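Annex B.
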Amino acid sequence: MHELVLTDVLQKFKETEAVREFSYTFSNGVYGLLGENGAGKTTLLRLICGILQPTGGTIICDGMPVYEMGAEYRRLLGYLPQEFGYYEDFTALRFLKYMAALKGLSKEYAETRIKELLDLVDLECVKNKKLRTYSGGMIRRVGIAQALLNEPEILILDEPTAGLDPKERVRFRNIISALGKDRIVLLSTHIVSDVEYIADHILIMKKGELIQKGTERQITEKARGHVWKCLVLEQEMQKLNDKYIVSNLRNSGADVELRIISEKQPTEDAKPVDVTLEDAYLYHTQMSGGRKNEII
Ligand SMILES: Nc1ncnc2c1ncn2[C@@H]1O[C@H](COP(=O)(O)OP(=O)(O)OP(=O)(O)O)[C@@H](O)[C@H]1O
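ABC-2 type transport system ATP-binding protein: predicted structure tokens.
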């Protein structure tokens, strides 16, 4: 089992602090990293992969700074970047063979492993088709397969579910759950439902900082009592929508059923309801001092 310890990590790009005061320890399990666009997720993942060396703080794997470990660290690591480069004229099989060679895997091992992975990501029957003919979801699955070639013990996936259809998402979740049993799996997304059922730990970033961490239950617990359901007339809806964070709305005859995130009861007949991770995510990222955040 590996331990990855981040202490006061800071990444500056000129004046922008893309990641700041980030401290956290990862060990085996699935970690879901949530945050809006620009929150600093990609930067954090690139730091953990050793692609960037932090402006400040340390990233230590089993007692050694990752940027000093070189090839030894790369052997442990599997990485799916947000956009991974590939040659459109390559078939999936050729691409995976090429990636296996880059990772220094032996030919015999690569052959067996590629077969296993093509089965795992359900691309075996189209492995000889050129990547230019693949859908976005299929390309993503090729990306997941390449990240797994070296049986990484630390697997970093940046928005792995982008472009996947609902059936592919379910398949992906099952794959990730199984992988998280005996390695560190860290995946970033801005889609809460992607990590809701599979992540053992949830991390929420906002403006470069880690603003919440814990199990799904711990994160939702903190928002308890701040999620409400109420039925309102259609003409009242806009007013409430402007004033509060509305996590869902559903037409119900002449009325509209609203799900509202608010520290105070938003209407007289609003009832508190059970908190989902989606509600909690909105609560933690978009509320400040009990009011709707000015930035949204
Ligand atoms: N190479 C870079 N040079 C300058 N600024 C950068 C660079 N990379 C990231 N940033 C800035 O750092 C901040 C965090 O970006 P980052 O891509 O890490 O966020 P993110 O949460 O991954 O968002 P997204 O989901 O949109 O990729 C943004 O303000 C971004 O513009």
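The mean pLDDT is 91. Residues 101 and 107 are 8 Å apart (CA to CA). Further annotation is deferred to the next reporting cycle.
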